[in-house]
Amino acid sequence: MDGYSGQSTTVAEGGVELSPATVDPISTLFKNLMDFAQGKIAGESNFLRQGNYDKLSVGAFLRQGLESYWLSKNGVTEVNGCGEWSHKALEEAIFAMYENNQRTYTSAGELSTLDFVAESEYQMFPGEEITIAKGYLSVIESIASVLPPGLVQLGKKVTKIEWNPESESRNIPTPVTLHFADGSHTSADHVIVTVSLGVLKAGTREDSPLFNPPLPSFKTEAISRLGFGVVNKLFLRLSQPANDSDNPKSINKFPCLNFVFHQPESEFRRKRIPWWMRKTTTLQPIYQNSSILLSWFAGEEALQLEKLKDEEIINGVSTTISNFLIPRSQNENSESDSNGWSNGHKNQNDTVEFHFSQVLKSQWGSDPLFQGSYSYVAVGSSGEDLDAMAEPLPRTEESPKAPLLQILFAGEATHRTHYSTTHGAYFSGLREANRLLHHYNCI
Ligand SMILES: Cc1cc2nc3c(=O)[nH]c(=O)nc-3n(C[C@H](O)[C@H](O)[C@H](O)COP(=O)(O)OP(=O)(O)OC[C@H]3O[C@@H](n4cnc5c(N)ncnc54)[C@H](O)[C@@H]3O)c2cc1C
Fold first, then answer.
1. Distance 373 CA to ligand 1 centre (A)
2. Which one of 134, 205, 293, 439 has the lowest number of neighbouring Cβ atoms within 10 Å?
3. Which whole-number Å values give the CA distances from 304 to 20, 312, 316, 407, in the listed order?
4. Which residues pair with 297 in a beta bridge?
5. For the chain, which domains are there?
6. What is the atom index within ligand 1 of the atom nearest the CA of 425?
7. Distance, CA 197 to ligand 1 centroid (Å)?
8. Cβ pair 108, 94 in contact under 8 A
9. Is the pTM value of this prediction over 0.85?
10. How do residues 185-236 score in pLDDT, each as one tens digit?
């Protein structure tokens, strides 16, 4: 935990800084709706009383919640309009900001593809979130330090896994053969597959089968039904404006900035803001007073980010900021006087400019060893598909006589309640290790 105060500044497109009185009612509405979807609070809405949640998405539920909120207010809103913003447009845009945040939490590119029923099965890990100073690698190194040196072989891409579901001798282990991209191979009685759901999706397509023979249909159907989205982080290093050197601390005052964008149908959308920035929720220092800023991207926007050159990213982010951070003296619409965020460099036209010197981004979508970021329960799938992901092969149903536990599956996409997380991946590894220990009566 880095002591970041968590205070943020919410600004609407055009530079209207929004007060908590404006943001909070919508923030509370959104939180209550998500708490309800996640089963944290009981309640009933007209919409849900119909009781048919089949194929209901979190996205549809949230929008119905917003509509009900408007209906309950009978046209009277707690949020005042401001300048080019009508009160309803402002409420909807603030709501969309929270929806976009939810896209990055879940990796569902569109919340309309995120299953409503499964949302209540997902469990948050208790306690605060922390940043591991030396990165996740230090956790892996610590766990792996008990293994004999040389046991973990890196840089060995598996191209094929040959297993034996047709074998007829249940009690005689039949080795599984792993073929590697460098032409070598090895065999083992048991293989625990922990590649991402994205790699499994690609590996079960006919043009590039990872398994020989192919996986049984209960497995391939679960793999295909579950969702695997793309979420990327973008880091930007702020540089000191050339003529602001008398104020060496100014770059360290970038606010934790929340963006409220005009929605697609609005006539006030600034054309220069690139489309891939329009679902970005925040741009914030990674810790208080850091000159490194972080933004999250999901879905199509995350994929586009992977394709852009650093210069295009810097231009896109800078243009976006300049349409939000307008010096207070110019910003007659500003409805809040809380935060002093206007610490950027004012140019000749007296608009605020921040300059960036370096870009770092993840590219999980195009990385062939990941093919996305983390899984979610898509509409049409369910928690049962996560359980099916975890089932070892072969099953007695399909292979009554073959040795069991040839292929075991671990990884975040195999954990019914902690999928999409590192701890879900970790617990699933313990689960499969224990399965083998039980098999050999070692527990
Ligand atoms: C931007 C972002 C932020 C996140 N933030 C958090 C967070 O705050 N908290 C949290 O708990 N989780 C977070 N996650 C999720 C977390 O990183 C994943 O859930 C976790 O890493 C999944 O672990 P895994 O072992 O299941 O799969 P992976 O991490 O995908 O590991 C699979 C491994 O298989 C290897 N592999 C793939 N194909 C092959 C092949 N053919 N041959 C050999 N090896 C192969 C890959 O190289 C990789 O090392 C985040 C993820 C992203 C993308």
1. 7
2. 134
3. 33, 11, 12, 36
4. 232
5. 9-124+231-361 (3.90.660.10), 137-229+365-439 (3.50.50.60)
6. 26
7. 10
8. no
9. yes
10. 999 999 999 999 999 999 998 788 999 999 999 999 999 999 999 999 999 9
